[in-house]
Amino acid sequence: MYADLLNALPDVFSLANFAAVVIGVIAGIVVGAMPGLSATMAISVLVPFTFGLEPLVALGLMAGIYNGAMYGGAIPAVLLRIPGTPAAVATTFDGYPMAQKGEGGFALQVAVVSSAFGGVASAFALMLLAPPLSKVTLLFGPSEVFWVAIFGLASIIFLLGGNPVKGLISACFGVFVSVVGSDPIYGNDRFTFGQLEMLDGINIVILLVGLYALPPVIDLLETPLKTDGVKSSKLGTEPIWKALPRMKSYWKTWVRGSFIGIWIGILPGAGGSMAAFMSYNEARRASNTPETWGEGEPEGVAAAEVANNADTASALIPALTLGIPGTAVAAVMLGGLLVHGLQPGPMLFRDNPDIVFGFMWQFLFGAILLVVLGGSLATNSFARLLNLPRPLLGSVIIVLMLIGVYSIHGRMFDVYLMLGFGAIGWVMDRLKFPLPPVVLGLILGGFAEENLRLALRIGRGDPMVLFQNTTSLILVALTIAVIVGPSLKKRFTGKGKAQ
Amino acid sequence: MKKTLTALALALTATTALADYPEKPIEVVVGYSAGGGTDVMARTVAQFLEQELGDGASVVVKNMPGAGGQIGFTEVAQADADGYTLGTFNLPAALALTHDRDADYGLNSYTYLANFVEDPNTITVAANSPYQTLDELLEAARTDPGAITVGLSALGGNDHFGANMMAAAAGAEFTLVPFKGASMARTAIMGGHVAAGTMTLGQTTAFPDELRVLAVLADERSSFRPEVPTAKELGYDVKMSSLRGFVAPAGLDAATAETLRAALSAVNENPDFQATMAEQGNPIAFMLGEAFAATAAEQDAVAARIWAESPWK
């Protein structure tokens, strides 16, 4: 197998194949940076065109876009508190406060280096450990996946700090949105009001753009006509190699975040946003100064960005070996493989090693290229956006939002839905309800429901089926720890102080 | 006189229009996303169809995914029957969903052009499953009704119908577990989370060492896996498969339909096309016009019967 891996390398460096990765990364960063445009969408648009391309050119473009977009989402997250992709929500926590303090440039550099680190780690996992890791995926049946979803929801509600009651209410709203559409087992319509457009549920991008992009734009438009106080000179446009030494101390966070991202990636469905949240939580818990997190701690950006890139290549492990994509993007990429007659499964590695391993190399180089292309692109071009007069910037973002949401299915219905979510987001923002639980509620809620119902069917209605194996029990224990942990810790340390 | 002239003029325009067909791009509506099995088939056929129609003909695939294909099927049914909107058609799924919900189309909404793919369903277990033969599995399902869990890609599709028909034929009872898609069901079988599955043969081919196919639900053994017996040989006359073909809206004029059918037949006879389809793991079962329409009617009846006996929602 390792011989195959090396044999695939020379082809990756042919002009067309390498250029595809470069173009893909640039396109991915641009797409990721635009609120409403996601990697999933970019790759879906690309798939039909790949019919006429050589397999590695097509796959290189996809690998590049995927890597680029996962970082690109951080750019508006840092500069405007608008996550460009669902996975960049956690990047806003510390990235935006850094930008307000005039450290936006450094935040973007931390993001790009962390993204690259996560991407490289993930690519290595894909290259070297795909077959054994796919065995781990097999361990996760409906009841285990149900507990992963519950664990994820508990983490976001209780660990993110702030008010857990408000967090719970936000999460419930997200879970409610996940209920809309046809139910996962029987296909009965729920809350669709007879609209065929609602039958497939509410696309995460519509919710994300509405909730996250509209309120900041309203803020932008509310302020009187003036350019932002943050000048690009103050963004910290020092060359990236000069910024690198300042990131030395993040290596633990990078390693931890990579493990979390890779692990989440091999589980079907959860994806980059859950990875980023978990990595952020864990890094903050391990930090000596947890109180600075959320107020512009660069390590927070590092934790979120390393994890949301670390799940990219690893999400392809179940996709390539079992045909089950770990993320929505991986699902679309599977389509791109199918177009070239590449059927997922163990045979794929035996029958087409040149292409499969070549694709993995392209992931690796895509991640490395991020530092070169992302570093200069981000600091030199996108960051200058902040110099635009605020009403102009706000209008540009609104146009991008409308185009992005419209282009998901090509219908105005989604645009109105997005504006509705925008109104809800604005109210929630004013009332200090946290928005991240809504996003995870939508992602994990549907996932939890579907798998709970499948598990109960398998158990013929007996709920004990949820506690029947070790993997499930470990996840139950972790969930309990997340829920009662913080209050126990408070009580424990409180006592210590009293004595 | 005036009338005859008009008629003559009309006839003339009709023939010239016909002679020129296609004079603009032909759109093929696919009710699933780009890169899915149906989409890949549509694009492969489209590419060869352009050659066969000749004269710089252009065939464009348009994806309209959503609601289990319903959005795309409805689009084709309601399009003008002018030969410029065609669609891919999946059986039994497309007609099954006209029974479980109010769909704006039905069996008679289409002109059936040609079916290309037929992928038979199977009864499959994991390679490490204790059940070595179909009879052992069915015996277990008879002794403890419901103890055998069967993973499906969804309710109301060929996987589901195959499982129901098998259970009825064997006097057994399965617990049906509808996953989101065939690959999720397959993974659950491989991971031992469900006991068996009814996925199509095409979905088992990439996993020869991980899965054991106990029987094919077809009249004849498949040339892809000749060692696997049919259910019929084993004493259960059960037949179910997934079909993918091309339709046009109902009321397409006979001449255009003939042109399209002739071109699609020529596509099927092209050895390059056959090779491409084999590479994609698509078993070809070419059926033209009437034969395809008859199969659709047959599938519709099966769906109607199962819906009446055991509605799934």
What this model shows, in words?
The complex is a heterodimer of chains A (about 500) and B (about 325). Chain A has helices at about 1-5, 10, 15-35, 40-45, 55-70, 75-80, 90-100, 105-140, 140-160, 165-180, 205-220, 240-245, 250-265, 270-285, 300-315, 315-320, 330-340, 345-350, 355-380, 390-410, 410-430, 435-460, 470-499; strands at about 180, 190. Chain A is an all-alpha fold and about 500 residues long. Chain A has one domain (about 1-499). Chain A has a two-stranded antiparallel ribbon with strand order 1-2. In chain A, helix 8 crosses helix 13 (about 250-265) and helix 9 packs across helix 10. Chain A is globular and about 55 Å long. Chain B has two domains: about 1-120 and about 240-310, D-Maltodextrin-Binding Protein, domain 2; about 120-215, Periplasmic binding protein-like II (D-Maltodextrin-Binding Protein, domain 2). Chain B has helices at about 1-20, 35-55, 70-80, 95-100, 135-145, 160-170, 180-190, 200-205, 255-270, 270-280, 290-310, and strands spanning about 25-30, 60-65, 85-90, 110-120, 120-125, 150, 175-180, 195, 210-215, 240-250, 285-290. Classes of the chains: A mainly alpha (about 500), B alpha/beta (about 325). At the A-B interface, helix 8, helix 17, helix 18 and helix 22 of A face helix 2, strand 7 and helix 7 of B.
Largest sheet of chain B: 6 strands, mixed
SSE class of chain B? alpha/beta
Helix tally of chain B? 11
Helix share bin of chain B: 40-55%
Radius of gyration of chain A: 22 Å
Shape of chain A, please? globular
**Largest sheet, strands/sense/barrel of chain A:** 2 strands, antiparallel
Regions of chain A with pLDDT < 50 over 5+ consecutive residues? 229-233, 495-499
Structural class of chain A: mainly alpha
N-to-C SSE string of chain A, H for helix and E for strand = HHHHHHHHHHEEHHHHHHHHHHHHH
Number of strands of chain A: 2
CATH topology-level name of the largest domain in chain B: D-Maltodextrin-Binding Protein, domain 2
The CATH class of the largest domain in chain B: Alpha Beta
Mean pLDDT of chain B: 89
Mean pLDDT of chain A: 85
Helix content of chain A: over 70%
> Could you tell me how far the N terminus lies from the C terminus of chain B, measured between alpha carbons in angstroms?
61 Å
Number of helices of chain A: 23
Q: Please report the total strand number of chain B as a whole number.
A: 11
Based on CA atoms alone, the radius of gyration of chain B comes out at 21 Å
